[in-house]
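Training component of the fellowship. As part of building independent skills, the fellow (R.M.) carried out the full modelling exercise for a liganded target. The chosen ligand was adenosine-5'-diphosphate. The inputs are recorded below so that the supervisory panel can assess the work.
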Amino acid sequence: MRKTIILSNRLPVQLQINEGKMQAKPSVGGLATGMKSVHQEGESLWIGWSGLTQEEIPEDLESEIDLALEEHGCSKVRLTEAEVEGFYYGFSNRTIWPLYHYFLEYAEFELSNWKIYEAVNRKFANAVLEQASGDDILWVHDYQLMLVPQMVREERPDLSIGFFLHIPFPSYEIFRTLPWREEILKGLLGADLIGFHTYDYERHFLSSVRRVLGLEVNFNEINLEDRMAKVDSFPMGIDYAKFHEAAKKNADQKDGEQSDLQRRLYAHKASTPDAKFFLSIDRLDYSKGIAKRLKAFEYFLGKYPEYKEKVRLIILAVPSRSKVPQYQLLKKEIDELVGRINGELSTVSWTPIWYFYRSLGFENLVDLYTSCDIAWLTPIRDGMNLVAKEYIATRTDKTGVLILSEMAGSANEMHEALLINPNNFEQIADSLHRAINMPEAEQKARNTPMQKRLARYNVEKWAGDFMESLLTHKQSDPPYVAR
Ligand code: ADP
Ligand code: G6P
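Fellow's submitted model of the complex:
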């Protein structure tokens, strides 16, 4: 039977060993949460890294781990500590991530990391080749695995190979600074279909293909002499029903059934009925603009001091890539900013910022979404930002205001939100003021079309569209046919 192989660095579950026992935790991040819904749907095998290095896996636990992953429809690629260092922390997150998010000054160009990136991509490709049979479909995900499509194609040109990039593709002027730009493009062009979240990322990619490789581009197809590679944009959706239904259930819960977090949030709301809660949820990442947001919050309270004791900012940051120096520095900066702002502004009855540095379970995420009046998301650059979509999906009574950075891919589809430039504190302060005072009728008028769109173009539809496009293109453009 034909199966789909999903290939990504992160599996939907992350394994940890605690006191000799294995524990599995759900992975955080747009790729994992989105693809998890798709993976449960049908016949698929998900290949990726377990989150543990080979050195961390005790020999007697190896088969238990494989079995546990098998239960989730997953199979692991073994990575050594040195590989994780060079491939994941190194090339993926110290070269590609900053470069593609326009943080050029953070990008390191280390030949040794590139070599490990190549070798580890080869490992992932080999894992696919071992598992692929018949006319399977391969769907490769994200910037950690950009060489895999070509590596697999060299052995199995008959497979349908799709690639999706979950982060921005930068403009040619940025991309051209990468010493291995040709290799990356050639690796990606091994796919039959290459997908991006937005038309802009697609355009940037095509421009780089034309200018770096000198290839002919016809509309959204690239002429590779023996075949055409297709490029298109597919804005990723969320599991709308899951969030919407969870929020409904949450609203219906009686006192005894509420989570601790929900009870506390409701108690706070009840004791200060005219207070407004602002919410921001992100991985702790410099691309998310968390430090700037804190400074903008301070600016807002300076410009509109009447909101002191009336608003509260709840910041949930999930630990991420904490071995990379920029992430460590950012953590320190955020800790200091929260401490300073709270220290300077708090009163006996008011703490302006509640800051949580941890991962939360699904129910608690929904508790936060449903009890906060305003979602305030200010990435400096973000491939999509699913949190914005999740917030809107949970607003079952259609109230709530979304303030969203125009630098997030999701801003293209959510133009009813209050869109802001994350560097413009004046505009941000005024948007917060506007959000606080927005009449309910206007909130509903803005949220209704966004909800409709999110319900219609959900993650299942997104994956279905990608697959259909891949298979149609493959059929119309068979391999081995010389042009
Ligand atoms: P990114 O993929 O860059 O992390 P997205 O906003 O697209 O950003 O996706 C983040 C995903 O991770 C969302 O599905 C969100 O629900 C989840 N998430 C973010 N923060 C947390 C947290 N603290 N605890 C649990 N899940 C989180
Ligand atoms: C983003 C990337 C994903 C990545 C996720 C979490 O969503 O697009 O590829 O998995 O962040 O980051 P991590 O480094 O923990 O996998």
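The panel noted the following from the submitted structure. The longest helix spans residues 111-131. The chain has 17 helices and 17 strands.
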